[in-house]
UniProtKB/TrEMBL annotation:
Signal peptide interval: 1-16
Family, similarity comment: Belongs to the attacin/sarcotoxin-2 family.
Source organism of the structure: Molorchus minor
Domain of life assignment: Eukaryota
Main location per the UniProt record: secreted
The keyword Kinase is assigned to this record: no
Entry keywords, A to Z: Antibiotic, Antimicrobial, Immunity, Innate immunity, Secreted, Signal
Pfam families: Attacin_C
Lineage: Eukaryota, Metazoa, Ecdysozoa, Arthropoda, Hexapoda
Name of the featured protein: Attacin C-terminal domain-containing protein
Statement: the UniProt record of this protein carries the keyword Nuclease: no
Domain called Attacin C-terminal: residue spans: 51-160
Length: 170
């Protein structure tokens, strides 16, 4: 399952990247990949229960596509060893012109299993004050003392709008 998610993610990034092909005087072809420096953010902190670190940033940002990623790990003070007690990450993809998006993520607690989730959102209608979209989500727990759980999934229709409130003047 983890290899499928990795391959699907890499394939999605490769397909989404706009390549420009150039040819030199000898007929040799090259492709140019747009490069942009994006802000990345690393956070860490300690509480009375443990220590945690997270990192997030934009992996790809072009005129039409954006791919963001995040990862985290945490360690409880009372646990033994140096391995993290919980870790995970998520990739978020956005298609800017359509407002559509997708995500895939996983959270793992060694000894208790892994939670995997994925989702898609398709914008059906959008104007200045009102929008409608459809969302599909999937999640499943793998491994741990309770074993692999049943898949949890759903499809949702969402509507959102901005309304102007004015005071009534008789």
């Amino acid at each position: 399952m983890k290899y499928f998610v990795l391959v699907a993610t890499l394939l999605a990034v490769a397909v989404a990247m706009p390549f420009d092909i150039f040819e030199d005087e000898e007929g040799e072809q090259y492709y140019a990949v747009p490069v942009s420096r994006e802000k990345r953010q690393t956070k860490w902190g300690a509480t009375n229960t443990g220590f945690g670190v997270s990192h997030q940033g934009t992996i790809l940002n072009s005129n039409n596509h954006q791919l963001d990623g995040s990862a985290y790990a945490s360690k409880n003070w009372g646990s033994h060893g140096i391995k993290p007690d919980q870790f995970g990450g998520q990739l978020d993809y956005s298609h800017k012109p359509s407002g559509s998006s997708a995500f895939v993520g996983a959270d793992r607690i060694p000894g208790y299993g892994t939670d995997v989730s994925a989702g898609l959102k398709q914008n059906l209608y959008q104007n200045k004050n009102f929008g409608v979209d459809v969302t599909g989500q999937y999640g499943r727990h793998f491994g741990g003392p309770g074993g692999t759980g049943k898949p949890q999934s759903g499809v949702f229709l969402n509507a959102h709008g901005t309304f102007k409130v004015e005071r009534y003047k008789p």
